[in-house]
Structures are given as structure tokens and as C-alpha cells.
Design brief:
Blueprint (H helix, E strand, L loop, with lengths): L6 E2 L9 E3 L23 H4 L5 H7 L5 E3 L2 H7 L7 E3 L1 H7 L4 E6 L10 H13 L4 E6 L3 H13 L2 E7 H6 L1 H9 L3 E5 L5 H9 L7 H13 L4 E3 L6 H6 L2 H12 L6 E5 L4 H16 L6 E7 L4 H4 L1 E6 L8 E6 L21 H8 L4 E5 L1 H15 L5 H20 L4 E6 L7 H12 L8 H7 L7
Parallel strand pairs: 5-15, 6-7, 6-9, 7-8, 10-11, 10-15, 11-14
Antiparallel strand pairs: 1-4, 2-3, 4-5, 12-13
Helix pairs in contact: 3-5, 4-16, 5-6, 6-8, 9-10, 12-13, 16-17, 16-19
Length: 456
């Protein structure tokens, strides 16, 4: 084993004081968001029925750094700063000269990165006199995070969860209720949007687009209610940049800089949280910085196969029109276990960055991702959520390439959450892919299943 530290920690007084706004660092601004009725650029007044003034201001800000309110930082201190891990045992198993680091967000109250923005959004709404927040959730991490955040600031929380995930992961619903939230499977009979879907298909598995429609409809019908979104929009990505800023400080403390940065992408918040501070610095330094890979599921390949076009963020067409990589707002993905990556669109800001050629999108099969998750769990001792296993598959592929070339690259990824609520998904993978040796393994699966035991 190397003498390099397994975990690099920061103290509470090193918690970031500002969020990093990527937009002013870009060579050209992203396309405007359009009003769904007029198709003219949306104004702050247009967003007021959904979001409080502080979040509306952050959404359109051109300030490079935005102060984090002290009440938000105070809640952050419950779990932040989060540790940076060196994956010594995975490196050894792969026989690679690469150095693999991962920023672990699984120690938060919700077990993922989502509270970074949930706390900020709940605080902004409470300051504006809002009493209730509605939202959608896929895998349930975001719903759990918002329920927790609402409890910190005295708000009521109501969640619509994609039905496939609601049924696959019942204990996510339990966690939301423990934190004081209410959760409904979506599509539901509580909204016009939900009833319209159920009238056509009573057993509809749901989608994030449908759940967004339901949550937005419920928020618009009540003056003391606002809507909260767990990904996609600029202010959400902004809040997540505490991840990348901490990683920069931690790597600097041990004299490292990443050559390759890898994150999983669904709506874009986890990826942006890790990548945007590094990308902002890379742009300011004239292009000097890491290669950045955005990894998505092949079953919902928004960046790699979607159109770059204006589309609605929800199925019913209630949201503004955003220019983004999209599979179409009526797209219903397969009920893959990585529920947090099952969104038809991608963050407009992240989509713009892809169009500028600043990051490289990749897509991975679920079987490769779960194989990577097992290899990681058996070496590093953390069962990853299905979503970041996609990034782990890419990191392992990069590290394996280093084993072939002898290059000592530094690889950084974000382990955005644990998989403790996803064990049924791992059971299904084990039953269908590892115990049945007759199936056709992918190249990555075969390589990982042949890994030597890690020395104890």
C-alpha cells in the first residue's frame, strides 16, 4: 500500500464561503430560457410564481462568486466538508499506476449530494415567507434531501416520486416521511397532469417529466407554496459547487492535480458540483486543466444521442422552454435501477458546455456500471448508489488504460451517494448476471470479474 493518505479531510472553518458561478467564465453565454406561451426570453417576474427572489437572482447572475448565507453554511456543517478518498485498494486490484481519488458525498443526511442545494433552496424560500415546497424525485435522494431541508427551516414538503422508483425503493419514501415530508407515487390522481396520464395508461411506470408536471401544478395552485427542483437549473448546479471547491483544496493539500475528472450525469447537478470549479479555473488559465468526462446511462443517453434543441422540462409543458440535450419531453425511459439518471433532458448550462466542446460525454451500459459498483464495494468497502457506478465504470476504464500504457494519471470522480436503499437492484444484478455464467458478459464485466483478490 502507498504511504499517501487514504482520506484527506478539511476542518469546518475551511467550508466554502461562496458558490462558483461558471457562466461568467465561459467564452459565450448559454442561450436564454424562453416563456412557454410567448417564446420570448423569460424574465424574473415570470419565474416569481415558482421560485423566491434569491433563487431567481442566482439563476440569472453573472457574478463569478455568490456568497453562501450563513444559515445555510450552519446546516452544511452537519456533514461538510466531505472527505476526499484515495482508492488505494481498487488501484491495487486493477494493477494500475493511476491514482484514483473520489469525493464521497454519502455521509450527508440523505446519503447523497442532494442536500447541498436542498438546504439552500429551503432557506431562500423560508426567507421569502413560503410555507410549503413541492417537488419531484426519481430515485428518492432528492425527495429525502428536500424533506430534511424543509425540516430545518419549518417548511412543509410534498413529493411526487416516479412510480417505478417508488415501488423499487420503498425505504426512500420512509426516509421522506421520517423527515416530515409527504410522498406520492407519480403519476397520481392528485393533479390534472397525473390523472391525464392514468386515464390513458393506469399502470404507467412514471417519469421525471410527469412528476415535475404534478409538482409544478400543485405549487402554482397555492399562494404560499413554491416549487423546488433537484437538478437541471443554474441555481441548483451553483449550490453543488461546494463539492468541487473542497476537492480542489484537498488535492492541493496533498500536492495533486487531476488529469481526468469524471462524473455521472442525469440532470447535471452532481457532475457540475464536482466539475464546474475545475472548469472555471481551466478556462481562466487558457485551457490548462483536466480532461472532463460526463457519463450517462445508455438507457437514457441524453448527451450522447439526444437533440440539442428547445424543449420543456416536464411532460405536460408547464415549465419554461430550455435549450438542452433532450430525448423529448414525452420520453419514458426504461425502469432502470439508476433512477436519478432517468431524465429526458440535461441541464441547459451543461448542454451548452458540451456544445462548446469543453467536456466529453460518454454512455455506459447498466451491466458495466453494476460490475464496476461491485468491484468498488469489494475493494473500497462502500456500496455505491447505482448512479455513480456509471462514473466508476469510466474511471476504471481510464485506470485500466493506464495499466496498459504505464501512465501515472490522476483520476478524480464523485461518489455522489451510497447504495444502501438500492440493495434490491444489486440483488437483481447478482442473480441475473453473476450467478448465471451463461450470459454474454461485456468486456468490462469480464475484466472486473477476473480481478485478483486484494492483499489484506
Amino acid at each position: 500500500m502507498s504511504d499517501a493518505p487514504t482520506r484527506t479531510q478539511l476542518s469546518e472553518d475551511q467550508l466554502p464561503t461562496h458558490w462558483v458561478n461558471l457562466i461568467p467564465h465561459l467564452p459565450e453565454p448559454p442561450p436564454p430560457v424562453l416563456h412557454p406561451a410567448t417564446q420570448e426570453p423569460i424574465t424574473p417576474d415570470d419565474l416569481a410564481p415558482l421560485f423566491p427572489p434569491a433563487l431567481v437572482a442566482q439563476e440569472a447572475s453573472d457574478e463569478p462568486r455568490i456568497p453562501i448565507p450563513e444559515p445555510v453554511r450552519d446546516v452544511y456543517r452537519l456533514w461538510r466538508p466531505t472527505p476526499l478518498h484515495r482508492a488505494h485498494r481498487l488501484e491495487q486490484a486493477l494493477g494500475t499506476p493511476a491514482r484514483i481519488y473520489y469525493k464521497y458525498e454519502g455521509g450527508s443526511p440523505a446519503g447523497s449530494h442532494k442536500p447541498n442545494t436542498a438546504v439552500a433552496q429551503a432557506h431562500a424560500n423560508a426567507e421569502a415567507g413560503v410555507q410549503r415546497l413541492t417537488t419531484e424525485t426519481g430515485a428518492g435522494q432528492w425527495g429525502s434531501a428536500l424533506a430534511f431541508a424543509c425540516a430545518q427551516f419549518g417548511l412543509t414538503c410534498e413529493v411526487w416520486q416516479v412510480r417505478a422508483s417508488f415501488e423499487q425503493k420503498p425505504y426512500r419514501g420512509s426516509m421522506m416521511r421520517v423527515f416530515g415530508g409527504t410522498v406520492h407515487p407519480s403519476p397520481s390522481d392528485r393533479t390534472e397532469a397525473g390523472r391525464a396520464v392514468l386515464a390513458k395508461e393506469p399502470d404507467h411506470p412514471g417519469s421525471l417529466g410527469i412528476a415535475i408536471s404534478e409538482a409544478v401544478e400543485a405549487a402554482a395552485a397555492d399562494d404560499v407554496t413554491r416549487y423546488a427542483l433537484g437538478s437541471v437549473l443554474n441555481h441548483v448546479l451553483l449550490h453543488q459547487t461546494v463539492i468541487g471547491q473542497e476537492a480542489q483544496a484537498q488535492l492541493a493539500a496533498i500536492g495533486e492535480e487531476p488529469d481526468v475528472l469524471i462524473g455521472c450525469t442525469g440532470g447535471g447537478s452532481n457532475f457540475a458540483g464536482l466539475a464546474f470549479p475545475f472548469l472555471a479555473d481551466r478556462l481562466d488559465r487558457g485551457g490548462q486543466g483536466p480532461r472532463i468526462l460526463a457519463v450517462e446511462p445508455a438507457a437514457c443517453p441524453t448527451l450522447t444521442r439526444g437533440r440539442y434543441a428547445y424543449d420543456y422540462g416536464d411532460t405536460a409543458g408547464l415549465t419554461p422552454l430550455m435549450k438542452m440535450h433532450t430525448l423529448g419531453h414525452d420520453f419514458v425511459p426504461d425502469a432502470i435501477h439508476a433512477g436519478g439518471l432517468r431524465y429526458h433532458g440535461m441541464s441547459p448550462l451543461l448542454s451548452h458546455v458540451v456544445e462548446l466542446g469543453l467536456i466529453e460525454p460518454r454512455a455506459y451500459q447498466q451491466s458495466d456500471s453494476f460490475a464496476a459498483g461491485l468491484a468498488f464495494a469489494r475493494t473500497e468497502g462502500i456500496v455505491p448508489a447505482p448512479e455513480p457506478t456509471h462514473a466508476l465504470a469510466s474511471a476504471i476504464e481510464e485506470a485500466t488504460r493506464c495499466a496498459e500504457t504505464g501512465e501515472e494519471r490522476v483520476i478524480l470522480t464523485a461518489l455522489c451517494g451510497h447504495g444502501h436503499f438500492d440493495m434490491a437492484a444489486y440483488d437483481a444484478y447478482l442473480a441475473g448476471h453473476l450467478e448465471d455464467r451463461g450470459h454474454d458478459q461485456t468486456a468490462l464485466e469480464a475484466a472486473l470479474s477476473a480481478l485478483p483478490a486484494v492483499d489484506r
